[in-house]
Records
---
Amino acid sequence: MEWRKSPEELVEFLHARMKGVEAEGRKMFGYPCYFVSGNMFVGLFQDDVFLRISLEDQKNVLAKHKGLTPFEPLPGRKMKEYLVIPKDVYTDKKAFDELLKISFGYMLTLPIKLGNAKKSDGSKAKKENKSSKKAKK
């Protein structure tokens, strides 16, 4: 399966929407994504916008916003806390802001992924690898 690049207008849309959000932008799967404390929060995959929303919050979100679907970057490989947001929802500023707020709130409850997260001074947080742990024993 060959992956398509996200349309430039979609990339620009996401970058514009993420201005002012305390999230780190970087690529995942070769697509623009944003991370909070090292956890993937929102991103693009081909023509899709996806968000991470807790399983508990998904029930309410799916009832309120029609057309959201599980994020499945490869057939049979659903990412359980991620939903694809349809264009009519992500282009509705009020609806998308609500989803971003729900998702961002959930990100703040997750443990920090030190291998990917940045410290408050902007430097990378260090993560001990298995070999350094064995050497300490």
---
Amino acid sequence: MVHEITAVLVSWRDGGETIAAVESLADARSRVGADGPAVSLVVVDNGGEGAVGRRDLLDRWPGATLLVNPTNRGFGPANNQGARQSSGRYLLFLNNDTLVQAGWLSEMLKIVRDDESVAIVGIKQLFPYTSEVYHTGIVFTSDRQPVHLYPHLDASVAVVNKQREYQAVNGACLLVARDVFDDATQVANVSLGIEQARFLLACPAVTQ
């Protein structure tokens, strides 16, 4: 089966949170059904106590790939490791403590399908189990400091529900075309992690 998107999650000593995130992904996928995009899943476990159980993972996402590192390789290298195992045209990098909602991924995908000039799509992120906005995107102040826009506003406010171009998006959940990711990381020689901002600044970004 050809998968349009490969989701990459990195876990370190928090297998329980990772499995909860996978359950959230699987539930959202089931509610969209056959009309949703085909998604494969790669989980990279950076070792230590609280590892991701292979059976727990496959019970929730049959066919998922689990990569287990004997030691902690770090967040960035582990994401790159997962990306190298991907089969999708698009990569979805998702923090392993994220809970998603039905329809979220189709909306992200629609943006890059409709406009090939968009390199990365981010999200409106809420504080857990609330309607309070954590961020909608990132801008830079006159002294070049990154700032999250609209923190703590209610998620129903119009200004936080407007699709727009940003200077960067938060890495907690981002969708990027595989060829864009490959080109940006090769040219800049960066990993998705500590130098994440350099990668994000290299690409036009939109939040939806």
